[in-house]
Amino acid sequence: MRSLNRFLSTALFLRRRFCTAAALTEAAAEESSPLPPPPPSSSSSSSKKNSNSDSLYRQLSRLPATGGKSVSETLNEFIRDGRVPRKDYLDSCIKELRKYSQFQKSLEIMDWMKMRGMNFSHKDHAIYLHLLSKTKGVSAAENYFHGLSPFNQNLNTCGALLHCYCQQGLEDKALAHFKRMEEMNVASTNLAYNGLMSLNMKLGKPKNVAPLAEEMKQKNISLSALTYGILIHSYSCLDDMAGVERVMEEVKKDDEMKQNWIIYSNLANAYVKAGDFEKAELALKELEKVMSRSDQEAYHLLLSVYATTSNIAEVKRIWGELKSACSVTRNINYLAILQALSRVGDLVGFKDIFTEWEGECSFYDVRLANVAVKTYLKADMVEEAELVFERALKRSLGPFFKAREMFMSFFLEKQKIDSAMMYMEAAIDEVKDGEWHPSPEIVSKFFEYFNKKMAIDRAEEFFELLKRVGSCNSTACNLLVQTYITAGKTVPDIRGKLEDHGIEMNNELENLLVSV
């Protein structure tokens, strides 16, 4: 058995691979959304019409998050050119954009549809409610739901609102809403129960999951692949592998479920979490037997888990099969293999495939560049990382904040404050409309350096940069004061400096000064 220590260092990564969160939420891209492929056109009347529709989709998917042409302007321009997008095509655009976490664009398309007088189905109202929650918060989704007619407060929209509550971990609201759904006789669905199960997992209450599954059985509600996945995850979190295997025995009695590759992916991850890589790989072999050769998500899962078990040979085999199965190797496929090769530490293979992607890609997805920057910096290959970043600046639309933060962290660890500050200044110069704030971890790392070096001037310079992006929160103020204290400044001096920076005293700062 391979080293368990390697697995423990990747626990956070593996947790994302369980289907609990993935099936109840659209996985948000960690750094930026990839360019979605065009959805299949609903109309087959002519190849020209299909081409026009795909052209519209590509325009919408490539619109920048802020600045530039808006979604409504793009749609109106499309109509002015004599082309009217059908509702079913717009629905498919929304579906694809949601899949790639482009929620704001999806919402703007639906707003445009409403403005044009297109009728919303129950499903449309549910999707709109979900998009409001994603872009404007749960309260906006609640207001929309309560503004619907009783006819439209149904299984679809009630389920969507429950989904929002569960996603946000709002236990009291979720349970109260579920009770109302029971009163309306719309709660006896596996979607509703899966939501409650996911909520309990999110809240760190895996013991509550199995009783909910039993309740489903008592009510003759069929258990879905997602239900079984959550059950496996819950037992795994309880370190109850016997429970995991009991679930799999139940799955094997269901001809439909035992053909579902997602269940085997959860089983593999459970074994990985337990440190049993041999059984994890046996589960992956079962997954390969039942998966569709055209299911790219299954290939991506195989790449990630084989990488976690450090099986480079299987990573390369799966990559070869994925490329053979695809008519076109997309950015998302390259992202999966690059993440896998980075995880196993195969720098030669990583560089070869990254170079291949750069030479072939039609759209330079900044996420792949970010993976390369992270991989090279981890290996102390800073020159290679900088070259990748330079190419990304020329070929990609960004955003570049994630990469800049990686460079900041790297140079701070190397005690190269000038370089770290240079990347911070560049990031702040790039910010538009408050789209980025330095992460708390980065802010803490900077002040850790200033504190250690008693570098008051650099700390003040950094604080002024934070002010430019509205990031002078209480934590930053406290860290600045702590730097003054470490450098031996007196209380009057500190008060004067805080006044110069426009910082108002509060109880927290006063308590810090008392310790001087």
Automatic annotation (TrEMBL):
Chain spans, region Disordered: 28-55
Region forming the signal peptide: 1-23
InterPro entries named among the record's database cross-references: PPR_rpt (IPR002885), TPR-like_helical_dom_sf (IPR011990)
Positions annotated as PPR repeat: 154-188
Domain of life of the native organism: Eukaryota
UniProt keyword Repeat present: yes
SUPFAM superfamilies in alphabetical order: TPR-like
GO molecular function per UniProt: mRNA binding
GO CC list: mitochondrion
Sorted UniProt keywords: Repeat, Signal
Start-end of Low complexity biased regions: 42-55
Family from the record: Belongs to the PPR family. P subfamily.
Descriptive protein name: Pentatricopeptide repeat
